[in-house]
Design brief:
With 160 residues, this protein is α/β, with parallel strands linked by helices. It has six helices and eight strands. The chain has a single domain, classed as YbaK/aminoacyl-tRNA synthetase-associated domain (YbaK protein, Alpha-Beta Complex). It has a five-stranded mixed β-sheet. Strands 1-7-6 form a three-stranded antiparallel β-sheet.
Amino acid sequence: MPLTKLREFLDSHNIKYLVTSHSVAYTAQGIAALVHVSGKRLAKTVMVRIDGSLAMAVVPASQHVDLDLLRTAASAGTVELAGEREFKDAFPDCETGAMPPFGNLYGMAVYVDEAIAEGEEITFNAGTHRELVRMTWADMARLVNPAVFNLTRRPVSAAA
């Protein structure tokens, strides 16, 4: 059961969290629609290779990782999206593409978009395409210690 490793980790740190079950969905925007959560409030984990090493980029479901911004944030030479074949074996307890943003449980760095860090809570896949976990951002930040940067291009607001 994929949620077991994450649940044991959260429970061992006395973290309060909520698990929500939903119909099977494979895209972050599809999940957001199913559970009636804004795509801005649902975090998706995007697997990347930074100078050849797997890492997680966590952004709002409604956004895309800007690889140039991530390369700058990571002070890296190369950043590219990782294919499923490259990372599926790194998460033996998760369904492919549904890994939670807890890179510390899998020996990899985590980069979080600052829009997520500005919220009080974070909601994310719990290792399956049928379950989400919601918890406070403060607890997530304390447990994972992610690097927080602007990882998405945001529209430039018109001058008032």
